[in-house]
Amino acid sequence: MRSEAVLNDQGDAMAITVRANVVAEPRTKGERRRARLVEMLSEGSDKRASVNELAQALDVSVVTIRRDLALLEKDEIISRTYGGASLAPGRREMTMAQREVSNVVEKEAIAQVAVSLLHEGDLVILDAGSTAERIAAAIDNRFELTVVTNGLRCINRLVGQDRVHVLVLGGNLRGINETICGGDAEMTLSRIYGNIAFVGADAVSAERGIASRTYDQSRLKSMMLRQATQVYIIADSSKLDDDTDYPYWSPLPHEWGLITDAGATQEQLDALEEHGATTILLAGEQDTQNSRNPKEEP
């Protein structure tokens, strides 16, 4: 059983209806496997794999993989190739359900580090996304906070936390990543200045900043980067490659922090430090003890 927040458009305002005791639809084993298939195709160097490779990696039969690929092809998520599959052209973006099972350990570790930075009474700007969702869950009603967010999944994670006041940025809903953005969200955020902001990214580039799928998302992220005393980009190490395929970028502020995982390379971290990352927290086995702060180096 769970509670669920539902957004209702009421002209200039966005109201939240809380529905309690909603039974969450279980994720089946097949759904989790197909989400992992999409993730594997996204991570591959050539964005494709053979049926045999996929079956071996997931420890299932070739027949099962072919059935999964047929379902994903029907949904126009993948394209079948001779003996294998690749992501469908123009459909590189995973749904939130697929992101939910992607880099789970790393995202959970990042969330725990992020929550360790919070203090009683903080006003927190929390971006949308699967890592942000884990931060919302990790708060676990431990603090009196105000959380400003544009993420539907973050809202649902915070509904049952009665010590957390939630301010929802209203606007246009983008279904695939369950994000609210647009002019109304920007206008509301312009009147807010937080103690700390956690901003997600599809990719992080030392030169370009943080990547977004849409122009509206990029505008809102750019504003989030300006609207808090402390700003942390939350991104697992798979997002630290300089991927020029993304069309929209939010420039990095003069000083900012990064919370990522221990899979980040020295070269990646050095480049980000050179472009304003004054604090880098590496989530993992040692959690917050594993950190870099160039200002403290001799």
TrEMBL record:
Q: Which Pfam families match?
A: DeoRC, HTH_DeoR
Give UniProt keywords alphabetically: DNA-binding, Transcription, Transcription regulation
> Highest taxon of the source?
Bacteria
HTH deoR-type domain segment(s)? 30-87
**Does the record carry Plastid as a key word?**
no
Give an example GO molecular function.
DNA binding
**Which Gene3D superfamilies would you find in this protein's record?**
3.40.50.1360, Winged helix-like DNA-binding domain superfamily/Winged helix DNA-binding domain
Identify the PANTHER family for this entry: AGA OPERON TRANSCRIPTIONAL REPRESSOR-RELATED, HTH-TYPE TRANSCRIPTIONAL REGULATOR SRLR-RELATED
Q: What is this protein called?
A: DNA-binding transcriptional regulator of sugar metabolism, DeoR/GlpR family
Source organism: Actinomyces ruminicola
